[in-house]
Design goal:
180 residues; mainly alpha
Length: 180
């Protein structure tokens, strides 16, 4: 028989609950996901995965300040938490804090140079800074890494429309619709 401490059992239970919360979110039940995450954080305030998921849920609800707090806490607890950094980068971009967003994305790409999501966010930063050509380049890089990345296809299609490249826009947007 394996001897496990109560802390190990709690950690395993919390991890299982976070898996349940992720499944609930994927099924479109954000309320259930939020309830489960709140339970885990109530029992384990430093559970990094729960903090990241709570941050994502707050971001999806449009509560960027609260999302930022939760994600920054997760990163303080685990500096290598790339998902938290990517979520935080999206919040920072939405808040137009492009310099801090770039810091987070630089760290992610240093640790994972093939992060398609980081390149998607870089595209968003360049779009936010009115650098459409730069945004297009980063979105293309995201698609080199992950050719079926629907959000990158949609964003690229929109930028092609801005550039009046209607044929290219139609092509990538049709591809995104096929995948979605």
């Amino acid at each position: 028989m394996i001897d496990q401490t109560d802390d190990t059992l709690k950690a395993n239970d919390s991890d299982l609950r976070i898996t349940e919360a992720r499944k609930a979110l994927e099924a479109g039940d954000a309320a259930a996901a939020k309830r489960i995450v709140a339970e885990v954080i109530g029992l384990e305030p430093g559970h990094v995965e729960a903090l990241v998921l709570a941050g994502r849920l707050e971001k999806l609800s449009g509560r960027d300040e609260r999302a930022r707090e939760l994600l920054e806490t997760a990163i303080e607890l685990d500096a290598e938490q790339l998902d938290a950094r990517l979520e935080l980068a999206e919040v920072l971009r939405r808040q137009l804090d492009f310099d801090r967003c770039l810091d987070e994305l630089s760290y992610v790409l240093y640790r994972d140079p093939r992060s398609a999501r980081a390149y998607l966010e870089l595209g968003g930063v360049h779009r936010g800074r009115a650098d459409v050509d730069g945004a297009i380049d980063f979105l293309k890089k995201a698609l080199e890494i992950e050719p079926d990345f629907v959000q990158a296809l949609v964003d690229l299609g929109r930028l092609y429309l801005v550039r009046n490249h209607h044929e290219e826009a139609l092509k990538v947007l049709e591809r995104a619709a096929e995948l979605d």
